[in-house]
Amino acid sequence: ALRPAYSSGWLMTVKQRHLQDTIHDYDAIFIGSSRVYRAFDPTQFEALMSQRGEAIKTYNFGVPGLRPHEMQLLLDDIVAAKPKRLKYVFIELMEWYPPILNDLRRSDRTVHWHTLENTFSAMKTVWLQPISRSEKYVQLLEHANRWLKRTTNYARGLQRIAQLIALPQQTTTLKRQHGFVSTDQERGPYFDNRRATFLEKYRDISLQQIDQIDAKNREAGSLESFPLATLLKQHNKLERAGLVPIYVLPNVRWGTPGLHLLKSHGHLERLLIFNLRSRYPELYVEEHYFDRGHLNGKGAQHFTRLMAQEFGKLIK
């Protein structure tokens, strides 16, 4: 009953608690993975929007490793809270990748999002994937295992006793910067090692992938393995709650022709696509990267500026 809900994911707990207390203070929030957490600066965004005559208060709900099904629980909580002034919900668009990610496999975070509806959705997505039946069965059993653990209350204890636990020191930074912390602000062996590993092992590979982005995006995409019905259900639920969902495809270093179809086929009218190297070259220069998947502080400034620019066009 008292097993921690996030044995290696305290940031999720901190941000959930902060939003519970302040959800009625924001006009917009941005939900996503570390690509959002490290790249979207609400303070800068608010200043840029103010210059355009728009007063908008925002919060960065980026959490490393956040995937669509876990994200769905957060969106459900937001709808249930009936926020008084919240209007825009930016949502990082990504593949609804069904397997349990290796870097989260030992974390109890993989348990807490396995509600019956989410588990069923994940299983349907597994079945759509172009993989062997044996691989599908392994993944289906993984999701069933985590649903069973959640059903028996395993890994939800911290949510029950969260008010008794002191918040990590970084909470002060998260509140001051509205949830954003750039990679430049991080210190310690972990981040030093990530940077060194990128330079020694992955720099050339990443640059080659970046060179091929636009060509990959022009390839024939497909939505056959994408759970479109689940995404549209999410979209419609937010709209029924009076919110405006805006999906954002950030500057990932690979082509995503399938995800581009969501806009070109008319499924998502409000979709901001940034993995277009020819259109947003400043997002792909080496000096703006910290490692394979994250921008540094200077890169985050560029991304936030472009977000304000594209969002301004959207709400004209």
Write down the overall geometry.
globular
N-to-C CA distance: 50 Å
**Average of the residue pLDDT scores:** 88
The fraction of residues in strands falls at 5-15%
Class per helix and strand makeup: alpha/beta
Number of strands: 5
Q: Determine Rg (CA atoms, Å).
A: 19 Å
Helical content class: 40-55%
How many helices?
Answer: 14
Largest sheet: 5 strands, parallel
Task: Tell me the strand order in the biggest sheet.
Answer: 2-1-3-4-5
Low-confidence stretches: none
- The secondary-structure element order is HEHHEHEHHHHHHHHEHEH
What does this structure look like?
The protein has 316 residues and is α/β, with parallel strands linked by helices. Helices cover 49% and strands 8% of the residues. It has 14 helices and five strands. A five-stranded parallel beta sheet has the order 2-1-3-4-5, with helices on both faces. It is globular.
